[in-house]
């Protein structure tokens, strides 16, 4: 079974990454020295903690195996292992991207059908 990891980015930053061929990271990623990613189960917590109330965001899926040695699972929030990518994230490795809509309460909406084959 293939493992998928996810990046949340602004539409502008992701469009820029597609034009350049790679994503260099958000300001937080640059500050921390790696690109923050999430597993499927970590997405709700990441969205709530870091992106609630924000707009113009996309969710981008990447197959773990295609990210190579730059992908590392490291201890982060609450001692949980999170995927971190060291280097430039190749835009061409994206499986798909989906626009994240904001609900009336400011929470970002994830559609379950995005994750079915």
TrEMBL record:
Residues forming coiled coils: none
Superkingdom of origin: Bacteria
SUPFAM superfamilies per UniProt: ADP-ribosylation
One of the Pfam families matching this protein, by short name: DUF952
Protein name in UniProt: Dihydroorotate dehydrogenase
Source organism per UniProt: Hyphomicrobium denitrificans 1NES1
